[in-house]
Amino acid sequence: MNAEERKAIKAKILKDIESTTKKVGTLKELSQPIAPEDSIGRVSRMDAINNKSINEAALKLSQEKLIELEAILPVLDDPDFGKCQGCGTQISMGRVMVMPHRRLCMKCAR
Fold first, then answer.
1. Cβ-count burial of 103 within 10 angstroms (0-12 exposed, 13-18 middle, 19+ buried)?
2. Where are the domains of the chain?
3. Of the four listed, 6, 11, 33, 57, which is most buried by Cβ atoms within 10 Å?
4. How far apart are the C-alpha atoms of 3 and 8, rounded to whole Å?
5. What is the pLDDT along the chain (110 residues), one digit of tens a residue?
6. Prediction pTM value
7. Which residues make Cβ contacts (< 8 Å) with residue 28, sequence separation at least 6?
């Protein structure tokens, strides 16, 4: 992997960190408890509780992604960055650009 590719990957990671941080903030707001004194109907309350559960799951995934993105920045300049941790082959640049926080090639990820 050359310096130009690493620079593009770093820019992508920083952009992903920024957008994921915003998403985490939004999902935290949407995952707030639903006050029982809110006067909404029974069906609406059930929908709100269901939506809260979905938002909590999305929040967990986003927080995990953010941790992985922040953890990958310090190792970006390592010579082994971009190599699959499963089989040792070079991960395709397309996969690295789409998911820079993943450390497995498509074959090993399956």
1. buried
2. 3-78
3. 6
4. 9
5. 788 988 999 999 999 999 999 999 999 998 888 776 666 666 777 888 888 899 999 999 999 999 999 999 998 888 888 899 999 999 999 999 999 888 899 999 88
6. 0.79
7. 59
